[in-house]
Amino acid sequence: MKSGARALGVAESVADADERSVLCGAVVRADRTADGFVFDSCTVGGTDATDAIESLFFDLGRDDIQHLLLAGIAPAWFNVVDIRALSAAVDRPVVSVSFESSPGLEPALREQFSGDELDRRLRTYRAQPPRHRCSVNGDEVYVRAVGIDDDRADAVVRAHTAEGGRPEPVRVARLAARAAREFRAGTDADV
């Protein structure tokens, strides 16, 4: 992958008492150069994460972003992202990267939700492609991809990962989301 290839990494930060989770989109080139930031939020325990991430992409107004890399598929306490719908909306491949082995979200969703709230999340979750294991710099990550095949998705993850298993666009987005959340919390306390 060329060093100037850009990915939009998306990650979130939320504190226990927050009703909204801060989302950050960080544009990072394959050579690890940060090239832009955008912020939004989504509801903790809600169903608006897909729309919020779509807004991040369009708010940037950047045609040079080649891929979206998401930190997982369920930010903000099970606000499940529909990566198929997101990929169609932004007309880019979307790659979700998670960092722990698990039996999937379905048991946790069943534990936390019921009725229509559970059904809606299960429909979204079950419509996503399965995740697969990807070895990156000796670490194992778990990848779901829409818009590109699994081998290409793995290559994108590896190309954007300098060390360890966390792709740089996601790592930078996570740091910026945390800083924005902490700033927001400090600003709210000062008002």
TrEMBL record:
Coiled-coil intervals, chain numbering: none
Family: Belongs to the UPF0215 family.
Top-level taxon of origin: Archaea
One Pfam family from the record: Endo_dU
InterPro entries in the record: Endo_dU (IPR002802)
Signal peptide: none
Species of provenance: Haloplanus vescus
Protein name from the UniProt record: UPF0215 protein SAMN04488065_1136
